[in-house]
Amino acid sequence: MLTPVVMKKGRAGTLVTLLCDPENSAALEGFLLRETSTLGIRIRQERRSCLQRAHQTVATPYGEIRIKTGLLGEEEINATPEFEDCRKAAAAHNVPVKLVLQSAVAAYQAGKSR
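User: That's the sequence. What structure does it adopt?
Assistant: Structure tokens below.
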């Protein structure tokens, strides 16, 4: 990720953030030190917590759209249409992506209420 930042003395700078597995960190450290103008880098280890993911498909007037769900234990926390499916369906039917997204959510909700 690249983030615009203000450095000391008000100079413009760019914060470069790399996410990698620990076994790749030494190679990326060397890359940053050789290929950028930096004189040093900061290294942190982060921990990530993720929802269990599942997919299902819903039928819409614009075709089949995959829905990605996020589960916390048995509780469904998120349900989101796959954007690329919606984008392709919208282009094929010459309608706004927003309309396909809304249609997919409505179809998913209707399937849950049965």
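The CA atoms of residues 88 and 97 lie 9 Å apart.
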